[in-house]
Amino acid sequence: MNPYLELLQAYPFEKLRKLFAGTTPNPNYSPISLGLGEPKHATPDLIKQALIDNLDGLANYPATLGSETLRLAISQWLSRRFDVPQLDIASQILPVNGSREALFSLVQAVVDPTRTQGGKPIVMCPNPFYQIYEGAAYLAGAEPYFANANPARNFAPDYSSIPEEIWLRTQLVFVCSPGNPTGAVLTQKDWEELFALSEKYNFVIAADECYSEIYFKEETPLGSLTAAHRFGLKDYRNLITLSSLSKRSNVPGMRSGFVAGDAKLIKNFLLYRTYHGGAMAPPVQAASTAAWNDEAHVIENRELYKQKFAQITPILQEVLDVALPDAAFYLWADVTKHTPMSDTEFALALYRDYNVTVLPGSYLAREAHGINPGKNRIRMALVAEVDECLEAAQRIASFVRQHMQAPSA
């Protein structure tokens, strides 16, 4: 077997199952899970109908490059949404089977294990992070380096503090903006710092933007393509943006997304995917085209999240150190301000006493540079309908009040 498999850690939800093992939740409460970030809003009819209308496509082998119609829809959406010139559909856009598989396979295509300078190649990850980043790094023969989220910088990593010897080994940097689990959005200044470092040290930036369409202010979250265009990277050199329909259009089971950006990188990634078997089924391509071409359902979906967060955040702010995020559908709360419990103790006791599941923040991060930046925080995914989320928030508030401790002087 591949020896790198031994380096993979248990997924956060496996750790959560072990934490809860042997614990019986209070039977007086129905179960509510805020643990898994799986969209629960209804899938739009136009997407389901497009899928049904194109089932004949199952009789055909799909091209890895995807249909011209789908790539055009993606290019037009990117131009509308991020205020950039349309990307070339022949060389700068590639449909993928959900951003998750593309995040993983992109690392396998990008990392050059023979290019070492002082040690193994490095794949830099934000910390906390989406676990695919770490696993992809290990299985490509690289070493993950964790750039801790800095609350003082709106949870952006402080890239200026990273030693040059690390940058010299870095081949790919993952960026998640809006972030999971923090919901934070990088600024133009953050992006320009990263672009300058990429130019100096010649590493690829993989911008994971699957939460870009769930936000709470009138101003849309800044995207990597917009930031690059403003910076003068008209060819998006060394930049790959990844997005998905899962959160935007409530179709996580359809597994549909795209990568876009640097034509040279896309060309080589296409070659990799031709062997990897990454072609999207024709009915899914047709349904995806319908989704990218329609914005009305996205606006409606976003409004549901706005209403939900507007009702639930104030309830939780009374008992937890938590704020409305820039974007995404998570609340990232510190549990230590009002309770004597760690994040794992909080999650276990809440599950036991009120049958509500939240995810301990330490499970979403690694200890790096002396700290685990997820420690003593919890992630709450507000993906269910508003009544269920309100019920969960009220139970959490009751739970914290039972365990409330006096604030430290």
From TrEMBL:
**Domain Aminotransferase class I/classII large stretches:** 32-393
| Coiled-coil intervals, chain numbering | none
Query: Which UniProt keywords are present, listed alphabetically?
Result: Aminotransferase, Transferase
Single GO MF descriptor: succinyldiaminopimelate transaminase activity
Q: Does the keyword Transferase apply?
A: yes
One matching Pfam family is Aminotran_1_2
Which co-factors does it depend on? pyridoxal 5'-phosphate
Documented EC number(s): 2.6.1.17
Checking PANTHER family in the record gives: AMINO ACID AMINOTRANSFERASE, L-GLUTAMINE--4-(METHYLSULFANYL)-2-OXOBUTANOATE AMINOTRANSFERASE
Name the chain's protein: Succinyldiaminopimelate transaminase
Organism of origin:
Undibacterium cyanobacteriorum
Which gene carries the instructions for this protein?
dapC
